[in-house]
Amino acid sequence: MVAYSFKSAFIPDIQAWLKMQTVRGNRIRRHARPGEPVQLYTAMRTRHCRKILDPDPVCSRVEEIDIDVGRVGLDLMLNGIPLDEQQATDFAIADGFRIKQPDMLRSLTPLKYMRRFWVMTHGYGLFEGVVIHWQRPDAPPPLALAPEETKGAPVRTLQVTDAGEGCVYMTCTACGHETGWIKAQPHLKDRHGRVCPKCKGVSDD
Fold it and tell me: What's the whole-model pTM score?
C-alpha cells in the first residue's frame, strides 16, 4: 500500500472528493498501481500526522506528466501529449487549484495559481513525474483494456532521427514515413514521439 502526504490547503477539496489526483515526481520507491488502496495523509512524519480519508480511496489510473515552468508561463503534457490552455486549466482545477471568490478580484486564474504554487514548491524548469488518480472505495474497480480493445489504437510511432537548431527530422517506425525537417516542439517534448500523419500509428496486427 502506498501513502501520500498533502499540504493542509488541499484537505477540504480532498475530503469533498473534488481533488481526486496528485502529481508526484519519479522516485525509487514505486507509486500506487490501479486497483490498490491509496492512503492520503497530512503532516506525515510529524506528531500532527492524520489520515484525510477513511476508508482509503482506490487508485484508478496513473499517467505520465511533464510540467515545464518558465519565467512567464506553464506548459503541461500528459502521456507525451501537450495540453491546450483549456485542457491545462481543467487539469489545474482537478488538481486542487480552484479559484475562490476573493482571488478572482486579483485576476488569479487556476493556471496562474498552479504556477505560483509550483514555483514556490519545485522552482523553475522541467518537472517529470506521474499523476495518480483515485476513486471512491465503493466505485466499480478500474478496468484494464483487453488486448482486442487496444487493437487499432493510434500510438506515437513518429520518432526523432535527427535534430538541428529548433527543428527535427522524424521517421515513422511503423510505415517508414519521413517528415523532412519540421519545427521542434519546445523543451524536448518530441522525445515522446508523435502520431504519424500518414499511418496514424495504427497497427493491424
Answer: 0.70
> Do residues 62 and 72 touch, judged by C-beta distance below 8 A?
no
Nearest Cα residue to 22 out of 97, 72, 125:
97
- Report residue 76 CA to chain centroid gap: 7
Q: What is the number of helices (H) and of strands (E) in the chain?
A: 5, 11
Give me the domain span that covers residue 184.
Answer: 147-192
Domain count within the chain: 2
17 Cα distance to chain centroid:
18
pLDDT in tens, 93-115: 999 999 876 555 567 899 999 99
Same domain (yes/no): 112, 152: no
In a domain, 205, yes or no: no
70 belongs to a structural domain: yes
